[in-house]
Design goal:
Layout (H helix, E strand, L loop, with lengths): L2 H31 L4 H21 L12 H24 L2 H8 L1 H14 L5 H18 L8 H23 L5 H23 L5 H27 L2 H4 L6 H13 L5 H9 L1
Length: 273
């Protein structure tokens, strides 16, 4: 096996692990989202994540600056990450897990499209056919004209688009930027932006909910770190489809914890995607 193929296989395995971590993270978000606004969850998630990043910095033997080497791309990625967080947290709090994931499955398709202008990757006709087919699957899940589209559906779509941009930019600058920079900047952005909104949405949190917020912080950082590693190791068109494994987690978690079933449109749409 060539080193290129080995890198892609390793990257795919890392991405699969990341999806499992994020699925668990999303379950806790859904549990707390019934009580708290996405802005409050993101603020405390960022706040509780800072000590973890501090530990990473203390154990990093590279004594380099935290200044971004590609400030423009890092700022765009940070903005997209903030929108992704707010949109995804809102979607998970209002829609069944499997339905949110089915819409988020558009992310790898959008990554394929964005990889052309941003990464210069070539997409063959077969992949274009896959993209079009996948988008048809998304429409099946959304059922425009047959079912009412809620803000949750639109939020999931926004999260999908911005998440694709976050992933592609990570691939573009990941070999130059320190992983901690790619983790820290979105955290600081969330802390500042959500902190400004917090007075308008704040609801007091009991100690046990703060403990769950710590779980969100740890799993969010761990998942983000694994995604960064995956896109650093392998091609975007290989890594991105691993996101589809989330439907397995969503089905299991949704049924066990929330007694959520799968409607026919979600099953058919997810299968097509």
């Amino acid at each position: 096996m060539s080193s290129h193929a080995a890198n892609n296989m390793r990257a795919a395995a890392i991405m699969l692990a990341a999806m499992g971590v994020f699925a668990t993270h999303d379950v806790v978000v859904k549990l707390l989202g019934a009580t708290y606004a996405p802005m409050q969850l993101l603020f405390f998630g960022s706040l509780l994540g800072f000590p973890i990043v501090a530990v990473i910095l203390l154990n990093d033997r590279r004594h380099e600056s935290l200044r971004a080497k590609h400030p423009g791309w890092v700022m765009v990625r940070t903005a997209c990450a903030i929108v992704t967080g707010v949109s995804a947290f809102f979607a998970f709090s209002t829609l069944p897990l499997a339905q949110v994931y089915a819409i988020l499955f558009a992310t790898p398709l959008l990554i394929t499209i964005l990889a052309i202008p941003i990464l210069g990757e070539k997409v063959r006709l077969r992949r274009w056919a896959a993209v079009i087919t996948g988008l048809v699957g998304v429409l099946i899940v959304l059922r425009p004209g047959q079912a009412d589209l809620s803000l949750g559906h639109l939020a999931a779509l926004a999260a999908s688009i911005c998440s694709a941009a976050v992933s592609v930019i990570a691939r573009k600058i990941g070999k130059d930027e320190r992983s901690v920079v790619l983790l820290l900047y979105p955290m600081v952005g969330n802390f500042l932006v959500m902190g400004a909104m917090l007075p308008f949405v704040y609801v007091p949190m009991p100690l046990e909910h703060l403990g769950l917020m710590a779980v969100i912080a740890v799993f969010g950082l761990a998942g983000s770190f694994l995604v960064i590693l995956a896109y650093r190791e392998g091609e975007a068109v290989i890594v991105a489809p691993m996101q589809y494994s989330q439907i397995i987690w969503a089905t299991g978690y949704g049924y066990i914890l929330f007694r959520e079933g799968l409607d026919l449109a979600t099953v058919v749409g997810a299968t097509v995607i």
